[in-house]
Design brief:
Layout: H1 4-23, H2 29-33, H3 41-47, E1 54-58, H4 64-70, E2 75-80, H5 83-96, E3 101-104, H6 110-113, E4 118-123, H7 134-144, E5 145-153, H8 158-163, E6 171-175, E7 178-182
Parallel strand pairs: 1-2, 1-4, 2-3, 4-5, 5-7
Antiparallel strand pairs: 6-7
């Protein structure tokens, strides 16, 4: 899918952020390398036991959440639009000793590159708001899921958090053989 003017600006913006994110307190790469989890407890609770399960993290950025999920037992694959993000994710995998596969590809082209299905599809906080075609994204999520698989998404963006007035628990919804785990912005 062509990125267009907005997409190219967004791509450039995130590409420029990779170096700063690598050294930021928020991503805490050194903490990750020493065993600290980057995941919110609600994410850990939502995915449950990942031992022996396959997982793809769409829009994985520099791989901290992806590799955090690997530490929970998953065989992880991450994809991101940005080469710098994917290089950082591969570097983090190597330096931390946590295995993971990472692919540079536009989300909408990812099924052509990663031609398999997974037990879990994961999308982290703030990822969905950047997408130009939510319907196509939903189809990609569905296509990546094995029958009975689970999709987990954090949809929080800074704008959502402004209006979050209460905290809620993760909810699991079974629909057509897949389990979708949903949570509101107030949970982050």
């Amino acid at each position: 899918m062509p990125l267009g003017k907005f997409g190219e600006a967004n791509r450039s913006n995130w590409d420029e952020r990779v170096a700063g994110h690598w050294v930021s307190d928020f991503y805490d790469i050194e903490g990750f390398k020493s065993g600290k989890s980057p995941l919110y407890q609600i994410d850990i609770d939502a995915v449950g036991d990942l031992t022996g399960k396959s997982l793809i993290h769409l829009q994985c950025h520099i791989g901290t959440d992806t590799l955090g999920l690997a530490r929970l037992g998953a065989d992880v694959t991450g994809n991101d639009l940005l080469g710098k993000s994917v290089k950082a994710a591969r570097r983090l995998s190597e330096e931390s000793g946590v295995p993971g596969r990472f692919f540079e590809t536009d989300l909408y082209e990812s099924p052509k590159i990663v031609n398999e299905q997974f037990d879990f599809v994961f999308t982290g906080n703030g990822a969905i708001c950047w997408l130009p075609d939510i319907d196509a994204w939903g189809q990609i999520v569905a296509d990546f899921l094995k029958p009975g698989g689970m999709f987990t998404s954090g949809r929080a963006t800074p704008f959502d958090v402004v209006f979050a007035t209460r905290r809620c628990q993760a909810r699991r919804i079974r629909t057509g053989g897949a389990i979708f785990s949903l949570r509101c912005a107030g949970c982050v």
